[in-house]
């Protein structure tokens, strides 16, 4: 099977990033000089996928504007000879064919994926959570797609999380297939301590078969009263083979303040224009911290 489509659910409320997300979608917050969602489009394009559906809602039109062309801005930059800026502006609108559908009510991630059923049709597809950002040598979606195309199954992008964190994720019951690849036989969303199967949790990346849609269609609300994608995958693994790939890379939950700040630092350290400056700045800060003022910044002047 060939994966040709990807879906980015980006219709969540973003309450953990308020007040910034009051009027700016969390997927549009910048990490260094690009909005988070652009990194996800780049990850999809690097997996050879050219059609992307973004699931949005009323407050997210900034996403559509961003991936559109702005001829007036391009003309101005061209006239001013700002070639680098011009190519950056164009790049965003040329990454892939981007389509949109609105989730009219935030009824959960499972419901957001269900909103993609007409776009997806009868094909396997990738799912990337809009606020999960990855740094890896081989793009994480490409890692999942390679396994999905090889085995002809759904593949979940997983990693082990610390025991104290598993209650915030889902937990998977797995058995090994080969190094880093597992068969999944059950999943539980936000497990209580006695429900934890393993410390493997899904971290924002999936390849799913269209078999997920009839399940989502009739799934009752689960944890938090929302239609949970995890519950649907739990049913799916009773019907067909589902694999879990312990992917290589670092995931940042930019929907949380700590994850967002970690991403800022790591991406800035690796940015060609500001990486050197950032390293020097952090070194200076670290020396101040070691010097014992507790890290508190005194305001100049
Ligand atoms: P989150 O739980 O991180 O999204 O959902 P949220 O509701 O925006 O988070 P809070 O309010 O800060 O807790 C994971 C992913 O699923 C999408 C989100 O946009 C995010 O990418 N999602 C969630 C939807 O598209 N629709 C929903 O109804 C819920």
Kindly describe this structure.
With 301 residues, this protein is of the alpha/beta class. It is 36% helix and 24% strand. It is built from eleven helices and 13 strands. Strands 5-4-1-6-11-8-12-10-9 form a nine-stranded mixed beta sheet. A two-stranded antiparallel ribbon has the order 2-3. A hairpin with a 2-residue loop joins strand 9 (170-178) and strand 10 (181-189). Helix 3 runs antiparallel to helix 4 (83-93). 39% of the residues are buried. The model has no long low-confidence stretch (mean pLDDT 94). Uridine 5'-triphosphate (UTP) is lined by residues 9-16, 55, 103, 106-109, 111-112, 129-131, 255.
Note the topology:
Layout: E1 5-9, E2 30-31, E3 34-35, H1 36-46, E4 51-56, H2 61-66, H3 71-79, H4 83-93, E5 97-102, H5 109-114, H6 117-120, E6 125-128, E7 132-135, H7 140-151, E8 154-160, E9 170-178, E10 181-189, E11 200-208, H8 212-217, H9 229-239, E12 242-246, E13 250-253, H10 257-269, H11 275-293
Parallel strand pairs: 1-4, 1-6, 4-5, 8-12
Antiparallel strand pairs: 2-3, 6-11, 7-13, 8-11, 9-10, 10-12
Helix pairs in contact: 3-4, 10-11
The structure holds uridine 5'-triphosphate.
Uridine 5'-triphosphate (UTP) binds next to helix 5.
The secondary structure category is alpha/beta
* H/E element sequence: EEEHEHHHEHHEEHEEEEHHEEHH
Biggest sheet, open or closed, and with what strands and sense? Answer: 9 strands, mixed
N-C termini distance: 63 Å
Q: List each distinct ligand once.
A: uridine 5'-triphosphate
Mean pLDDT over the residues: 94
Low-confidence stretches: none
Compute the CA-based radius of gyration. Answer: 20 Å
Roughly what fraction of the amino acids lie in strands?
A: 15-25%
The beta-strand count equals: 13
Helix content: 25-40%
